[in-house]
Write a structure and sequence with these properties.
By secondary structure, the chain is an alpha/beta fold. The protein has one domain: Flavodoxin domain (Rossmann fold, 3-Layer(aba) Sandwich), CATH 3.40.50.360. It contains five helices and six strands, in the order E-H-E-H-E-H-E-H-E-E-H. Strands 1, 2, 3, 4, 5 and 6 form a six-stranded parallel sheet that branches. Helix 1 packs across helix 5 and helix 2 crosses helix 3. The chain is globular, with a radius of gyration of 17 Å. The two termini are 29 Å apart. The mean pLDDT is 89.
């Protein structure tokens, strides 16, 4: 049985005149196009639209992979997307997402964070940043030498807590400097990451 089902979560939140969502939508569309071309089934969630919690849990159960597309607002996910995790992923406690934090009285050797129920699934982060790329991987940069995954460790830990395995991360930087953006170049980079994650033997390796 092939694992060919992908849930794409669009975590964008509209801010008029600042973040309209077109860029995140473009990557969602590109991912869907790529995946369907490679015989994947695709479903979508848009966190700023109304959703039914039970339907979302069914999507999480259905999916073999999750692509989480979102803009980084104030160094994290938009508040409405955090609300989605709080409502939906918490509702999956004991059934879909996790069975607690993993520790049990019966087995004291179990460590915190080992109670995930989604252990057969993997995820990919795709991020849009106002920050320039030069601020990462530089000890004198804003992020103190940390790379893109280290600076998003909280998001990675949500997925890890529920048992999912990470795939390669994609990020586009300096997005408010539209005059400097080469969209076709970025789409090519995005396709290469998708190719590594969904068509190569590198799937399901840990990258951070």
């Amino acid at each position: 049985m092939t694992n060919n089902k992908v849930l794409i979560i669009n975590g964008h939140l509209l801010y008029k005149g600042i973040s309209e969502g077109k860029l995140n939508k473009m990557f969602v569309n590109e991912a869907e196009k790529f995946l369907k071309k490679n015989s994947y089934q695709v479903q979508h969630t848009i966190t700023e639209k109304d959703y039914d919690i039970q339907e979302e849990l069914e999507k999480l159960s259905w999916a073999d992979y999750i692509i989480f597309q979102f803009p980084v607002y104030w160094f994290g996910v938009p508040w409405i997307t955090k609300k989605y995790f709080d409502e939906v992923w918490s509702a999956g406690y004991t059934t879909v997402t996790c069975s607690g934090d993993g520790r049990t009285k019966e087995d004291p050797s179990r460590r915190y964070g080992t109670g995930g129920l989604m252990i057969e699934k993997s995820y990919m982060l795709s991020l849009t940043y106002a920050c320039p790329e030069i601020e990462f991987n530089d000890k004198d940069g804003f992020y103190d030498g940390k790379n893109i995954d280290e600076t998003n460790i909280g998001i990675h830990k949500i997925f890890q807590f529920c048992g999912l395995k990470p795939l390669n991360t994609y990020a586009i930087y300096n997005v408010h400097k539209e005059e400097n953006l080469n969209i076709e170049k970025e789409l090519n980079k995005f396709r290469k990451v998708l190719n590594k994650n969904f068509t190569s033997k590198l799937k399901n390796q840990k990258y951070y």
